[in-house]
Structure to design on (654 residues):
């Protein structure tokens, strides 16, 4: 368990800047997710923390110590990769044992055949076998110990990769899209499994994903990255309900947040004091699907025609075409009376859930709605 | 109805034609070998006749093969062949595997240039540089030694190229995982890359062993002592026999020399197929 301090990290690939001065502080024992669209630099940042890629500028500290001069293998971090990266020629048990074999045994002790008969070697091998068995038991893969990765399913392989990371009790776990190659159902299962693993191990986790749902469901905190910069760091609740930037608001949450461009008149009608905004006519108003209700269109500030219904069983998503190009989505209980396609409905937005951004996408907190 | 039937029938006609062509090619390829074995079983008077028959009327196998081993130290030549091809292969792998790993998975200045040099090396046949090699070995006083037979082939650009291409197909994450697990770069090469590269190594080993076991050109230049002769040189010794060429014995010697290769290839072929099936890396 160690604190990870990321201090002013910059990285370019050729002329393209990939990371533009990243500062992040991951508390000891915290589960922090780096989330963002592909190409935002999140994986590169993780690799820099791991020591697999060298930063151009900045520093990484692990448990208060500078590690920039240390190679990946000397940083005592474990990493789980998207494609599992298991050794195809080793059995499951041997795969999990590799980090221990490389760290606990001397070169001579690692030799095939001879190695086992050297002094102290028998005890060391036995200790490794015991540790491997314990980890395999924890992850429910003990029965697979003698199989090879090629014979196993994606979910099983990912468990083995987790086991290989866990077995030596590293200072922190780095995970690079570990669930992306799994099917949707398994991904949801593994989400809760990784979260409970984190609670049990009480170790620092840095988790990279492009899937905001993974970040939301597992993390203590989320860092939303875009174009090589961290836009916002906060708890899942804060990032979801109180985003600093329109891009964060749009990236986090499913279905996507509704955004409308409003002139001063519409903004005023929706309860926004646009006069206090620097540019009152270029406001972007955003609200979640659950922060808006369907009402009688007469007298409503905003109204639209129902163009599509999406029934998820638990929720009904009503898509309404308004003057703006993108339809507005409203979340409803499917048991409530259902609107029909073609009908016109008014929209009532909860003022305290209305997020106001300027034309550049920066949040305007001083220009709040009535309710707040 | 006929429309449904047609493609299957056309396919089977095509398949027969294809098999016929392949069979004809196989016969053409195999015929000299069959004739070699056949001749090695015949007595001299039966070889130099005008009628064509595969199986000898009088089996002279024991005389021919016994004479082959008695006339020249054929066992010694075979041993030399094993020593030379095995040493060449071992050196080639010891050099090509780390070099290919560096070219495929490490980033360093001049990597493209070095790979260009490898490709350039592929374009130059070793016969073209035989004279400089000869002069160099002469200067070092190494002519007519095992070293002269082995050292010119220790670095195989083909091996480097083949291994590099294979390593490129292995995921980078595998290398990174090994780094995280505490392996040094050399440990990654020998503990991860080599076991994963089984099929590529088998393929390369086949090429290398066949090429150097059968090589006639370079051993002819590099060695003159009878004790250093490789199998192909040994076969030729029969042709230069004073008493005129005894084809039965010559073919017996040729059969003896070819047999280890054929056996090795059949074994390696099985491993080869296994190896390809085993590459469930992704």
């Amino acid at each position: 368990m160690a604190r990870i301090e990321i201090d002013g990290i910059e990285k370019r690939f050729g002329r393209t800047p990939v990371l533009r001065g990243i500062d992040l502080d991951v508390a000891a024992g915290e589960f922090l997710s780096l989330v963002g669209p592909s190409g935002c630099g999140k994986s590169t940042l993780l690799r820099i923390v791991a020591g697999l890629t060298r930063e151009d500028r900045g520093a990484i500290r692990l448990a208060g110590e500078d590690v920039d001069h240390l190679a990946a293998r000397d940083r005592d971090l474990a990493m789980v990769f998207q494609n599992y990266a298991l050794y195809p020629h080793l059995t499951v048990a041997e795969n999990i044992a590799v980090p221990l074999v490389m760290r606990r045994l001397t070169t001579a002790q690692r030799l095939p055949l001879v190695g086992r008969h050297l002094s102290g070697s028998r005890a060391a091998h036995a200790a490794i076998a015991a540790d491997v068995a314990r980890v395999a038991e924890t992850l429910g893969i003990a029965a697979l110990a003698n199989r090879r990765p090629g014979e196993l399913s994606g979910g099983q392989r990912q468990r083995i990769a987790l086991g290989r990371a866990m077995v030596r009790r590293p200072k922190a776990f780095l995970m690079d899209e570990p669930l992306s190659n799994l099917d949707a159902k398994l991904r949801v299962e593994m989400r809760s499994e990784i979260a409970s693993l984190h609670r049990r191990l009480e170790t620092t986790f840095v988790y990279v994903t492009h899937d905001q749902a993974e970040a939301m469901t597992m993390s203590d905190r989320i860092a939303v990255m875009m174009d090589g910069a961290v836009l916002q760091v906060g708890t899942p609740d804060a990032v979801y309900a109180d985003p600093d930037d329109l891009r964060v608001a749009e990236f986090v949450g499913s279905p996507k947040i509704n955004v409308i461009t409003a002139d001063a008149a519409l903004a005023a009608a929706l309860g926004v004091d646009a006069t206090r905004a620097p540019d009152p006519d270029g406001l972007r108003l955003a609200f979640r699907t659950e922060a808006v209700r369907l009402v009688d269109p007469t007298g409503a500030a905003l109204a639209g025609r129902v163009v599509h219904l999406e029934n998820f069983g638990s929720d009904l998503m009503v898509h309404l075409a308004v003057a703006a190009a993108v339809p507005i989505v409203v979340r409803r209980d499917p048991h409530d009376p259902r609107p029909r396609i073609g009908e016109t409905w008014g929209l009532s937005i909860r003022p305290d859930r209305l997020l106001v951004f300027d034309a550049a996408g920066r949040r305007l907190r001083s220009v709040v709605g009535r309710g707040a | 109805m006929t429309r449904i039937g047609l493609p299957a029938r056309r396919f089977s006609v095509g398949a027969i034609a294809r098999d016929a062509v392949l069979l004809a090619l196989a016969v053409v390829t195999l015929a000299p070998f069959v004739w070699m074995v056949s001749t090695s079983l015949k007595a001299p008077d039966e070889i130099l006749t005008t009628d064509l028959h595969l199986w000898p009327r009088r089996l002279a196998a024991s005389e021919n093969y016994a004479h082959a081993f008695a006339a020249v130290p054929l066992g010694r030549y075979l041993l030399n062949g094993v020593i030379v091809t095995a040493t060449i292969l071992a050196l080639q792998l010891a050099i090509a595997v780390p070099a290919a790993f560096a070219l495929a998975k490490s980033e360093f200045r001049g990597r493209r240039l070095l790979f260009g040099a490898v490709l350039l090396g592929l374009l130059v046949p070793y016969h073209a540089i035989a004279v400089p090699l000869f002069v160099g070995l002469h200067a070092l006083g190494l002519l007519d030694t095992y070293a002269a037979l082995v050292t010119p082939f220790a670095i195989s650009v083909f091996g480097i190229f083949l291994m590099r291409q294979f390593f490129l197909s292995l995921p980078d994450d595998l290398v990174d995982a090994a780094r995280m697990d505490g392996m040094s770069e050399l440990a990654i090469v020998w503990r991860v890359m080599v076991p994963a590269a089984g099929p590529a190594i088998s393929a390369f080993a086949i090429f290398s062993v066949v090429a150097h076991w059968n090589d006639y050109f370079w051993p002819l230049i590099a060695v003159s002592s009878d004790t250093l002769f490789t199998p192909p040189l040994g076969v030729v010794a029969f042709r230069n026999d004073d008493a005129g060429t005894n084809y039965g014995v010559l073919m017996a010697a040729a059969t003896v020399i070819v047999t280890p290769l054929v056996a090795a290839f059949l074994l390696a072929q099985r491993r080869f197929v296994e190896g390809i099936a085993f590459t469930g890396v992704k």
User: Anything to note?
Assistant: Residues 46 and 52 of chain B are 10 Å apart (CA to CA). Confidence is low (pLDDT under 50) at residues 278-282 of chain B.
